[in-house]
């Protein structure tokens, strides 16, 4: 066996590894697990599973860099105002909360010291995950990091595209294009599909009238640029990997 193979398991995906090899690597050689989470909802001309596909691809890209295993994705989420569109789902909040809690507790039981939640969906789901991180962390002594990648990487969006993004907008569409360009159907796109998110306490609507939600008026319309998509994908993954590495290093330094 080559030294490269000796320094990594045969696969980092938990559903593909057998129990014998898993026990050889966790927790002795691997103490970190990446848990992708998403939901099914419309994203303009990008797929309904954008919030699933993005964190799964992200996990596969960065797992070797941060020496982590990858847990199976939690695909059904707490969708909210977009769940009236075809193919969308909202899992009731209590069901979602209890299920994610059980998964986190199970990962801790499997001796992962660092549990990294790569969250692909916003709205009420972000608050639930933040609360669960504290609750399960206290109960299990696991160290838990929740990353809402699109928000954390808003500076990358500005750097690559020169303006802000949005839900199903330039940034998310580009990330999916970098994964598989055939999943983004440019021919179906019309600018009228986008609406800027309203300022707080101005107006709300259920369902939201557009499947592309712009963070700022006039910014974030998809341009479907393959070169920028590839650049954005790489820079986002780099920034997320750095955050995970730095967080674990600081946890270790603090002795928590």
Short description:
The chain is of the alpha/beta class. The chain contains 9 helices and 7 strands, in the order H-H-E-H-E-H-E-H-E-H-H-E-H-E-E-H.
Give a verbal description of the structure:
The protein has helices spanning 3-6, 19-25, 50-66, 93-109, 124-140, 149-152, 154-161, 170-179, 226-254, and strands at 32-37, 68-70, 114-119, 143-148, 166-167, 194-196, 212-214. The protein is globular and about 55 Å long. Strand 3 (114-119), helix 5 (124-140) and strand 4 form a beta-alpha-beta unit. It is built from nine helices and seven strands. Helix content is 44%, strand content 11%. The strands form two sheets. The chain has a four-stranded parallel beta sheet, sandwiched between helices. The protein is an alpha/beta fold and 256 residues long. Helix 3 crosses helix 8 and helix 4 (93-109) packs parallel to helix 5 (124-140).
Topology diagram in text:
Elements: H1 3-6, H2 19-25, E1 32-37, H3 50-66, E2 68-70, H4 93-109, E3 114-119, H5 124-140, E4 143-148, H6 149-152, H7 154-161, E5 166-167, H8 170-179, E6 194-196, E7 212-214, H9 226-254
Parallel strand pairs: 1-2, 1-3, 3-4, 6-7
Antiparallel strand pairs: 5-7
Helix pairs in contact: 3-8, 3-9, 4-5, 7-9, 8-9
